[in-house]
Amino acid sequence: MRTIKFRGKNGKKWVFGNLECFPEVETYLINGRDVNVDTIGQYTGFNDAKGQPIYEGDILKTAFSDKPWGIVRWNAGGGYFFIDEQLTFNFWNFNSCVPIGEILAATFGGRPVVVEVIGNIYDNKELIKEEK
C-alpha cells in the first residue's frame, strides 16, 4: 500500500502532506497551509535512485543521458502516473504513456534502470525547453 501525499507551493516554499480541497471558494490546503492549485502534485509512491520521492510534475533523467528525459504526469483515465518522454529521445521505444512503476522496474542491458529527479516543471522551467 502506498502513501498518499501531496506537495504544493505556498509562495516560494513547498508544503508537503495531506490535501484539502475547497473548490467553491478556490482554496486548496496542504497540512493546513494555502497552496497554489497550479503547483499541486501527488506523490507517485516511488523514489528515485537517490531515495528522493517522485511527485507529479517532476523532471527525470536517466543514467543514459545528462539531459532531462521526461516529466511525471497523471493519467486520470488509466489511473496511473507515467513518464511523458517529450524531452529527449525514446530509447526504449515505449509510447509516452508507460506507468512509472514499469520504468523503474525495467532493466536495460541486464542492469536496473537508474532514474533521478533533477527538478520540477515549476522551479526548473529551463530544463523543459529541451528539443526532442
Features:
single chain; about 130 residues; mainly beta; SH3 type barrels; five-stranded antiparallel beta sheet; four-stranded antiparallel beta sheet; about 5% helix; globular
Taken from the alpha-carbon principal axes, the silhouette is globular
Mean pLDDT: 82
The amount of beta strand, in percent, is 35-45%
User: SSE order in H/E notation?
Assistant: EEEEEEEEEEEHEEE
How many β-strand runs?
14
Helix-strand layout with pairing:
Elements: E1 6-10, E2 13-17, E3 19-22, E4 27-30, E5 33-34, E6 41-47, E7 53-55, E8 58-62, E9 70-75, E10 80-84, E11 98-99, H1 100-105, E12 107-108, E13 111-112, E14 115-120
Antiparallel strand pairs: 1-2, 1-6, 3-4, 4-5, 6-7, 8-9, 8-14, 9-10, 10-11, 12-13
Kindly describe this structure.
With 132 residues, the protein is mainly beta. The protein has a single domain, classed as SH3 type barrels, CATH 2.30.30. It has 1 helix and 14 strands. The strands form 4 sheets. It has a 5-stranded antiparallel beta sheet. Strand 1 and strand 2 form a beta hairpin. It is globular and about 50 Å long. The relative contact order is 0.17. About 5% of the residues have low confidence.
Outline of the structure:
With 132 residues, the protein is mostly beta strands. It has a single domain, classed as SH3 type barrels.
